[in-house]
Amino acid sequence: MQYLVEHHANVNQAMNDGTRPVFIAAQEGQFEIVRYLIENQANVNQADIDGATPLFIAAQNGHFDIVQCLVKHHAEINQARDDGRTPLYIAARNNHLDIVQCLVKHHAEVNQAEKDGATPLHIAAFIGHLDIVQYLVKHHAAINQARDDGATPLHIAAQEGQLDIVQYLVENQAEANQADNDGKTPLYIAAEQVQLAIVEYLLQQQEVSRQAKTNKTQALFIKTSKQQLDLGQALFEQHDAETQETVLHRAARAGYQAIIKYLIMYDTLRQTHPNSASNLPLMEQKNEAGQTAVAVASKEVATMMQACYKQRFFLANQHQLAQTPSRFFAKAYSATRFNTQQSPYIDCDIQFAADNCELDTIRNTQ
Length: 366
Prior knowledge:
about 55% helix, mainly alpha, 23 helices
């Protein structure tokens, strides 16, 4: 490379996609080459066809030494890609705390948003990077700044099940009752996404609890969400000896997504109950026809189930299901669980109750 530069190679000549030698070197983590090119008049702020600069790509890929070098040589800290994402945004997204710190110390704008209004704090809350959330908040990130759809970082954390981030934001004056453009508060979002641990935490906040009680629609929705979770626990041990169908088969066939999601997470924590007909995870158990629960579900529900199953360990850890109050009911019900030798019509009664979220019927069915 030195030979080419010494013989008048154009250090700023771009390829068809707009990338230049310094961009490629920054992307690949080639610190010495980046420095050499800069010393030979490479333009550190020329972007590719998507608007990404060498600083952006170095921040995205976690090349801290190159980020430092580019900043030292006057790279534009806040120059955004065409989609509005800045180097700080992408560093926060990819969990590069050292780069986030470097950029902020050199006056990166912590509240600069991308095209849909999401800030670095939004994306850190979405992914679950607590240390970056803490750093941004301590350096004046607007904790209640909303995206174009009205969602604040607290909405996003509640939606994604990031309990530690929800707690931190609330403790640092995040507005827990702020509604998005659809009128949904973080509590409503958490209930909608079956994030029970977050629902319980938010209801412990006096101002949230007060609003939930006065908003009848929201209160009813939250009650229904918690009923679904309790119902899922009640049905967990059901297994029809005749058809070999588990509760996950029934929930999948009915499209009862709240119960499906909970069962997969609960099964991950407990694995299969020792009294069940199989020690396989519920997702792998087959009915008499050789079908898994996914096979009996609609295409939409099957896609949701597979996505949830792939993330089961992460989701289970986030929910900390063992701490939920309704776990007591699961223990109590296990003592009088459905006798698989009884008529399958009783099982139909349970399924009907599941379809209608009639928790009392489930409890009373023997």
